[in-house]
């Protein structure tokens, strides 16, 4: 199987739609100019050092490595993946063109490769091992063959991976302190996503209590849109009085409609 890659769509997936709509991936480092004539890692490192002389050698090496991979090591036909954390979906495709400099797509991300996108894969369809591997925070990094295989399986079948509980627990605990910021966010979303409606209701009530409110949680059954009522005094006499209607859905939320519940 060919080498696979992940290119981050900026913080929070800001460039995800631009990547998808323009059939590209792109990275930054605009200040160093086009990489067209910089055919080796050493030449790129020299340009990075000239542009940012205050950078430490480790930072220079890291940037030069990612730029060299993007310019020279990624080949046409290689699998490529990017991620939308808001919708929890991976966009999967293949590299379709050589390196080029093009600032028309996103001015701060002019280093571009064309891509033939094949489709989206929900994070929830992947194995724990794949989700862990995809949690790295580098702008660009390599994927192992088993993760690529899992992504392509999910893209074709739209079915979740088979679960080996013992292996899942062992893998989930592996390298827990690496890339902790973004991995912690994704792991938290995984856990919240697995809650049923009643557990989610308790979670929302607990968050309100952590913010200093006292809450009343409606028992199961008709609640007339008032699953949780929160206020500073617990009786609703003091403002603000918060009325929460908890909704639970499994699929990704493309857009959030205006809520019926309100704070008064």
Largest sheet: 7 strands, mixed
- Per CATH, the class of the largest domain reads Alpha Beta
CATH H-tier superfamily of the largest domain = ph1033 like domains
CATH architecture of the largest domain: Roll
Which percent band covers the strand fraction? 15-25%
Distance between the termini: 58 Å
What share of the residues lie within helices?
25-40%
**Total beta strands:** 10
Oligomeric category = single chain
What's the alpha carbon Rg, rounded to whole Å? 23 Å
Number of domains: 2
Element order, helices and strands?
EHEHHEEEEHEHHHHEEE
SS-based class: alpha+beta
Mean pLDDT: 83
- By DSSP (H or I, 4+ residues per run), the number of helices equals 8
CATH fold-level name of the largest domain: ph1033 like fold
Spans of at least 5 consecutive residues whose pLDDT stays below 50 are 255-264
- Shape designation: elongated
Protein name: Restriction endonuclease
Enzyme class: hydrolase
GO molecular function: DNA binding; restriction endodeoxyribonuclease activity
GO cellular component, one term: bacterial nucleoid
């Amino acid at each position: 199987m060919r080498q696979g890659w992940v290119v981050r769509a900026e913080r929070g997936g800001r460039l995800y739609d631009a990547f998808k709509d323009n059939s590209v991936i792109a990275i930054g480092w605009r200040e160093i100019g086009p990489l067209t004539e910089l055919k080796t890692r050493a030449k790129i490192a020299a340009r990075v050092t000239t542009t940012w002389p205050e950078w430490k050698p480790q930072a220079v090496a890291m940037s030069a490595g990612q730029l060299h991979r993007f310019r020279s090591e990624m080949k046409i036909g290689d699998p490529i993946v990017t991620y939308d954390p808001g919708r929890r979906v991976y966009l999967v495709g293949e590299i379709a063109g050589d390196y080029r400099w093009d600032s028309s797509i996103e001015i701060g991300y002019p280093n571009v490769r064309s891509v033939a996108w094949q489709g989206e894969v929900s994070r929830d369809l992947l194995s724990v091992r794949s989700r862990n591997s995809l949690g790295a925070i580098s702008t660009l990094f390599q994927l192992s063959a088993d993760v690529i295989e899992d992504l392509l399986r999910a893209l074709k079948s739209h079915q979740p991976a088979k679960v080996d509980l013992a292996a899942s627990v062992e893998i989930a605990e592996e390298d827990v302190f690496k890339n902790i910021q973004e991995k912690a966010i994704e792991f938290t979303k995984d856990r919240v996503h697995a809650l049923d409606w009643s557990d989610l209701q308790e979670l929302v009530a607990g968050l309100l209590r952590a913010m200093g409110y006292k809450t009343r949680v409606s028992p199961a059954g008709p609640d007339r849109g008032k699953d949780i009522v929160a206020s500073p005094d617990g009786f609703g006499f003091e403002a603000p009085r918060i009325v929460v209607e908890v909704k639970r859905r499994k699929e990704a939320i493309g857009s959030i409609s205006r809520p019926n519940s309100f704070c008064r």
